[in-house]
Amino acid sequence: MQYNPLHYPYGSRRNAVFAKNGMVATSQPLAAQAGLDILKKGGNAIDAAIATAACLTVVEPTSNGIGGDAFALVWTKGELHGLNASGPAPRSISIAAVQQRGYAEMPKYGWIPVTVPGAPSAWAALSKRFGRLPFAEVLQPAIRYAEEGYPVSPTLGKYWKIAFAKYAAEAKGDEFRHWFATFAPHGRAPEIGEMWRSPDHARTLRLIAETHAEAFYRGELAEEIDRFSRQHDGFLRKEDLAAYEPEWVQPIRVNYRGYDVWEIPPNGQGLVALLALQIVKGFDFPSRDTADTYHKQIEAIKLAFADGLAYITQRDKMKVRVEDLLSESYAAARRELIGDKALQPAPGEPPKGGTVYLAAADAEGNMVSFIQSNYMGFGSGLVVPGTGISLQNRGHNFSLDPAHDNCLEPGKKTYHTIIPGFLTKDDQPVGPFGVMGGFMQPQGHMQVVMNLIDFHLNPQAALDAPRWQWIKGKTVELESTVPEHIALALAEKGHDVRWALGSGGFGRGQIIVRNEHGVLVGGTEPRTDGCIAAW
Q1: In a domain? residue 139
Q2: Are 529 and 155 in contact (CB under 8 A)?
Q3: Measuring CA to CA, which residue among 509, 494, 527, 532 is closest to residue 451?
Q4: Is 62 designated active site?
Q5: pLDDT band of 175, cuts 50, 70, 90
Q6: Considering its fold, how many domains does the chain have in total?
Q7: What does the DSSP assignment read for 346-375?
Q8: Strand runs (DSSP E) across 153-224, as ranges?
Q9: For position 353, what pLDDT does the model report?
Q10: What mean pLDDT is predicted for residues 302-307?
Q11: What's the domain range around 130?
């Protein structure tokens, strides 16, 4: 891959970061530094990733939490490993049970969309299999920030205030009062620069650290989650938690212009990014900033999403094979649908046969791509009393149509938006990358990969570049930094072009690559409080 450290065509706020011994890139400086401290204590990249992830549940609660899910891609000893730590629906839930409560579709808030949290299990599983330092030591930075507090950063403060207004308007029942007690103890969101602390988070993280997460799934914390659920007629039970184990999976890939692009297989939506890349690799892109490039990228992602939203669910519940969706013949058929005008996307027929992201690397060659989320910011609006555990609302993505591939079933995992990415070339690691942000994530993955490979941008410039986001139908949103002549040309091609009011919806990414000299090169997102801690 060609990197020109002087090539910054988009007015970057910062340069790419270069280091030899270790690097952690994420959306919060305090969390990135916590990971780097673990590296300096003798931990490896896996230990650093765990420390950073746990810390992010405290220092960026607007995007993730202890009650969320996680996925990871880990390169170590010449092999890429995948971890799916997303949790299933409770065993007692069903379409009929939800409909009996008066819902025609899955709600966003409250107990109904709550699924088993997987994040603590991911930390423990990664530590057990690949970590070097004691698990309890790795979680110490997160515990310390929860106990002692930290000053709220600018982007964090902005989204905290937005979340408070949303929950104040929509979360009216008694079950939601613990969210306000935890995250708005003074009757408001904390201000930028104000100190925030949570002893409840510290207690929970300490229990997780001391028991290798057993307390969360089969101990004291599981009992407290069960009690809270029963109190408010929720479906989640301690038996659901006790039965849960994260799943080691074989990552899926496509070869894009000589590079292998890796994603976690379904139920994650990484398949959407791979589908889009399979389609666009049949085109030539002499320049990034042209209407033709934007048009073909947008059309490809529309077709990829049409298939993804139709077919992605728990892998053994899918009615089509991943291999068939990613076949060259299917990509060619989908590519032929792309003409000069915007199309209305529809799923094809293949042949039968709100999130935080972090990247970490060390001097030994270990590299980690890790992502975790509560979904829609803080998630369900439920916080288990006395624990700081903000429960996710992933079940919102289930369909109540029994004919849909992603229909709600007891113990089933839903279509999942959070996806880590990884690049290799000739069976050697290039590095981890990711872009958080709901359904923007595969769109961000596609754009970042093309920026790196097609347009030879260095990691920082690849993240700085203007982004677009397909919304639905023929509607596409553009960042304000997209040149106006491109917007006008896209409108001529039939796209319903809209300018975004801010950059919050275009994802927040991180990239670390190892260059031909063995040097780590990192880029961090200009759209958030991103930071690269390097050594």
Answers
A1: yes
A2: yes
A3: 509
A4: no
A5: very high
A6: 1
A7: ----PPP---EEEEEEETTS-EEEEEEE-S
A8: 195-196
A9: 39
A10: 95
A11: 19-248+356-397
Contact 84, 165 (CB under 8 A): no
Chain segment 489-529, per-residue pLDDT in tens? 999 999 999 998 765 688 889 999 999 999 999 999 888 88
Region 271-280 average pLDDT: 97
Q: Exposure pattern of 189-207 as b/e (b: 16+ CB <10 Å)? A: bbeeeeebbbebbbbbbbb
- Cβ atoms of 197 and 146 within 8 Å: the answer is yes
Query: So what's the pLDDT on residue 530?
Result: 82
If residue 69 lies in a helix (H) or strand (E), which one and from where to where?
Answer: strand 69-76
pLDDT tier at 350, thresholds 50, 70, 90: low
Residue 525 lies in a domain: no
The mean per-residue pLDDT over the stretch 245-259 comes to 98
In a domain, 227, yes or no: yes
Whole-angstrom Cα distance, residue 534 to residue 308? 37
Instruction: Out of 355, 387, 414, 417, pick the active-site residue.
Output: 355
pLDDT greater than 70 at residue 4? no
Q: Of 347, 312, 313, which Cα lies nearest the Cα of 330?
A: 347
Tell me how far apart the alpha carbons of residues 102 and 104 are, in angstroms, rounded to a whole number: 7
* Residue 105 covered by a domain: yes
Q: Please report the sign of the dihedral spanned by the C-alpha atoms of residue 449, residue 341, residue 506, residue 374.
A: negative
- Enter the tokens of residue 39: 């590296």
- Let me know: does 144 contact 199? Beta carbons within 8 Å: no
